[in-house]
Amino acid sequence: MVAKGILAAVGVVALFVGIWGAGLAFTYFTADVRGAVSANEQIKSGPNRIVQYDSFFNACASVQHLKAAVRSTRDAMARATSEREQERLSSTLAGQEQLLAGAVARYNADATKNYTDGQFRDSDLPYQLFVEGETTCAY
Fold this sequence. Notes:
Layout: H1 2-29, H2 31-43, H3 46-79, H4 83-111
Helix pairs in contact: 3-4
């Protein structure tokens, strides 16, 4: 009688351990699927779509702005009359060119992210920007 009680208790514990183990196994083996669904829901959510779409226009406009600043600084260098002014403008130009290169690199990197950001780039925007040449952000 006591042996049957102990055996029944061990059976109940084994049943609970088995159910717990099955739950862990289910969680483990479905993690990839659940993660992919969760990521897809987050990426394609309304707020994310709007932010990513707008970010490409903003990034492109930033590149246009930096290119205008570089042109303006180069023009000012051509008109500068003192060596001190030339040096100041030269330093300014170097900084602007670094910012421009970084802005172009960020835009291009985001445009290549086909799974996340890149799929929300407007088709009227260029796929890739370049440091040299003109940049057109809207037609």
